[in-house]
Amino acid sequence: MYTIYDKQKNSHPIKVWLNDKDLLEEGCLEQATNLSNLPFIHKWVSLMPDTHMGKGMPIGGVIATDGVIIPNAVGVDIGCGMAYMQTNIEAAFLKNTRTANGSLLQGIIGDILRNIPLGFKSHKDPKTSPTIDQALDNVDLYTFADTLIPEVEKSYYQIGTLGGGNHFIELQEDEEGMVGIMLHSGSRRTPSL
Predict the structure, then answer these.
(1) What is the CA radius of gyration of the chain?
(2) pLDDT tens readout for residues 39-63
(3) How far apart are CA 124 and CA 154, in angstroms?
């Protein structure tokens, strides 16, 4: 992480969670600088490792405000984020275990590519979700947005999908030779919205 703060250009610091300054897009930095000059920013502007230029607000940007809410800062990709899960599986085991179709690692990657829809693609069959069930059981609470109710029903087909853009699944090997799984996913935008 590093901090960008120039009293001539920024009213508030910009904290960037990247190791290399060259990884920060110029347009993203320009948007973060504009945000840092807003009078109601609380303490600083933050840019996460997946940050990139958005529409006024960097995707992967985080701000806290004092006394105001900026709907665009809440996000055009609500729920977008990254997660990492460490496993107790040795990377060498996945690389060196042979199957009829190559290594076990190749098989896992193939399964991910075959079974997790990308972009606008969805599952062919609905998946189960107590959360969606509960939302539909209480659909009368959402009459103010009744045009979106069919989108809630479509979400049964989108559970466990990756979306598009910069979303990804990675199998990683740490310094000790153990496998970790990193996921960058977020909200889904359907063509009908």
Answers:
(1) 21
(2) 999 999 999 988 888 888 998 899 9
(3) 11
Query: Residue 105 contacts by C-beta under 8 Å, 6 or more apart in sequence?
Result: 91, 94, 95, 171
Q: Say which residue the tokens 């703060």 belong to.
A: 5
Note whether 49 and 17 are within 8 A (CB).
yes
For residue 142, what are its two tokens? 């959402």
Q: Quote the CA–CA distance of 161 and 188 in Å, as a whole number.
A: 9
For residues 90 and 193, what is the distance between their CA atoms, to the nearest angstrom? 43
| Global pTM value | 0.62
Q: Give the three-state DSSP class for 77.
A: coil
CA 149, CA 53: separation in Å to the nearest integer?
Answer: 31
Please give the backbone phi and psi of residue 179, each rounded to the nearest 5 degrees, phi first: -85, 135
